[in-house]
Amino acid sequence: MDQIAPRLTRAAVWTRDGVDIREMKIPELGPGEVLVRVSLATVCGSDLHTVSGRRDAPCPSILGHEAVGRVVAIGSGANPEVVGECVRPLAVGDRVVWSVTVPCHRCLRCAKGFTAKCVNVRKVGHESAHGPWTLSGSYAAHIVLPSGTAISLVPDSLPDAVAAPAACATATVMAALEAAGDLTDKRVLIYGAGMLGVTAAAAATEAGAVVQMVEPNPLRQSQSHQFGASDDDGRLLADIAIDFSGAPAAVNAALQRLDLGGRLVLAGSVSPGPAVAVDPEDVVRRWLTITGVHNYEPRHLGQAVAFLAATSEKYPWATLVDEPVPLDAMEDVLQPPLSPVVLRSSVAP
């Protein structure tokens, strides 16, 4: 490990009964491992699901997987994986975001290109604090990124509050839009104006689509206008529908709104819920395609950073993230933001 790297750090450890702020040892880095000083972490909805009991997760653990920080030290003997438009060897001092998933790169799924669904996958912010990867979450002053973690360099011009969601929300949107196919001149319906929905509205607009948003909250619906969406007129037959809400009623409605040859991309159905009826004859006669996206691949992380950098002055990304709290107040932000138009709470460890 680099001699300037600290030996101890502070972390917010989730215990099911709450959050303990603990001093933890920083381990010696193995080949290709990276120690990052976390600058800012945003609170993703999946972490809210974990603390509310809607999502099963190891415990105790350090949660948090949307974050930005600077490289403090790099383990010798292997080169970390750098993805994106700027690809060069990683260096101490680099400002970075990193992938949620850490694949083995050896299993059949990895060989097929589905590294996000690796049989042996490990996930940032989803590992036990008592396991071999103790500093695995971003709600800490430091995080250790194992060898094989995809890392993307972040330009200093991109504010922390804009860069951090690239690691989950923005990269997931890039994967969802890739699954949607060519968006040029396409009619796109987006269900759910949360962080993923408004990001998808902007990205689809930039790709040449005409975007309408379906969102029950009028404040969020109005906010989506700033990101390229117009209101759903209830009549548009869509070439593409993308659901980020996870609501069965929304999925069913999206199916009914697809035009001949339409495609439905499901990205919000990440917890158990009622089944949605699909009429096979209707799918056949209308040439429909239904596909799902869960997590993302390394290329999508690089695309996310590039997209945010290219649109940082066009869309008000920073307004979607609340002012950060210190690590000691971590428990206060493990709940939905008070304002419906603030889509992410944040912490500055």
Question: How would you characterize the overall build of this protein?
Answer:
The chain has helices at 45-52, 108-111, 160-163, 169-180, 195-206, 218-223, 248-257, 280-285, 298-311, and strands at residues 8-14, 19-25, 34-42, 66-74, 81-83, 95-98, 101-102, 122-123, 142-145, 150-153, 187-191, 210-214, 230-231, 238-243, 258-266, 289-292, 325-326, 346-348. With 349 residues, it is α/β, with parallel strands linked by helices. Helix 4 (169-180) packs across helix 5 and helix 4 crosses helix 9 (298-311). It is globular and about 60 Å long. The mean pLDDT is 95.
At the first level of CATH, what is the class of the largest domain? Answer: Alpha Beta
Structure summary, number of beta strands: 18
How far is the N terminus from the C terminus? 22 Å
Q: Please identify which CATH superfamily of the largest domain we are dealing with.
A: Medium-chain alcohol dehydrogenases, catalytic domain
Oligomer: single chain
CATH topology of the largest domain: Quinone Oxidoreductase, Chain A, domain 1
Q: List segments where confidence is low: pLDDT < 50 over at least 5 consecutive residues.
A: none
Question: Treating each run of at least 4 consecutive H or I residues as one helix, how many helices?
Answer: 9
The second-level CATH architecture of the largest domain is: Alpha-Beta Complex
What percent of residues adopt helix (DSSP H or I)? Answer: 10-25%
